[in-house]
């Protein structure tokens, strides 16, 4: 990257008016602006920048990856425990178990905006680590639940606390990585779902061999709860809050870390909530396109993940064989997301292409599940193809980290997208009247061959594919318009970077372009 030295013609004064926003004030300055300003006249050394990136990967990315494995396993403890007496000991009947899976996402949904506010106003690393400790406490107390009401409440608060993780991780990625580096890093931590999927069944099988003391299902929550609490305490001291305050980098390295990310033209973090950015978020078509994509991407989740063991067992496998057959699906997630992240990083501007490919694979898989005879083992391969869905969704998260500027707008957009994510997960687990279209989408497997659920998957994947094309067209047209404006009225790159550090949104910063 070229030097970010500003000359007098391109410097931004404190009384500049940004289109559609209040005058720039001290409150509009990025939380890292002081460090940025002190080094912006110094050319960025690329060798030094690469060394800083390696340090950030080793500390930040490794923590995100381990945490995400634990988050996924903790969330799905109830699925493992369900075959070891949980339903009997907590007196679950009828649809009670289905409601337990829904209660997690209801808590997740309700706390999206509150945690978005907290993530903006408090140190990110400390808040996330304390949240991890708290949900570990919730998890380790689950064995004390003896009724549906008790365990449903427990699941609600587990979802509420885990709701900070995904938006918080997206914000951390945008704070520490350039836009070109973000796809592979987001896919790296999100791909650990594949690792968790591959080994969750085997972990449950191992716990099944415990024959002393408490009920087997209680050990699952006690073990994972204790691990999570310990991990939360550890990363309280290790996970940084921002590039300018991190302790594992030297003073010069912190300056380099800030300088690298300033080039994103969207700043790093701003502690002031700005109402005009909230209004822009609501009026931005991109927000609602991503919302529909998140909603439709999670409709098939129940059939693909939460009810994966049931689906695989329906193909004729015994209990142990069913657990082993989860491994290929996890491998598809792991290697598919890493490959997709690498492609989007190696060839900038291919993020929507990656989403189209991933979603097309899911459409092929669900189409085969609908069309193949029930006794055809090829349907198992088709089910594994549907695990590509997480690549499409996780790649859409880069649209938040890279294509939304203004910290208030970014955290609110993340909250809206994950509300859609929760709504899709809830819908996938609830039964509705078959007379309504929503019932086709929200039914969980309940009839011979699971045909209805697979048809719902096909419809949901098709809706998402259409929305990916709509998103691409919207962003492409936005960039074309900005290019025409640039040709008519030149806008300096350094000024665009400076506006980003003043917390300008992508609408207000004429030098901002979407990454397709």
UniProtKB/TrEMBL annotation:
GO CC term (a single one) = membrane
Topology term for the membrane: Multi-pass membrane protein
UniProt GO molecular function: transmembrane transporter activity
Coiled coil where? none
- Bilayer-crossing residues are 97-115, 127-150, 156-177, 189-207, 219-239, 288-312, 324-345, 352-374, 380-400, 448-473
Provide the protein's localization.
Answer: Membrane
- Its main subcellular localisation, reduced to a broad class, is membrane
- Gene3D superfamilies named among the record's database cross-references: MFS general substrate transporter like domains
Boundaries of each Major facilitator superfamily (MFS) profile domain copy?
Answer: 60-516
**InterPro entries, sorted:** MFS, MFS_dom, MFS_trans_sf
Sorted keywords for this record are: Membrane, Transmembrane, Transmembrane helix, Transport
Write down the superkingdom of origin: Eukaryota
Protein family membership = Belongs to the major facilitator superfamily. Allantoate permease family.
The name of this protein is: Putative transporter
Source species of the chain: Lachnellula subtilissima
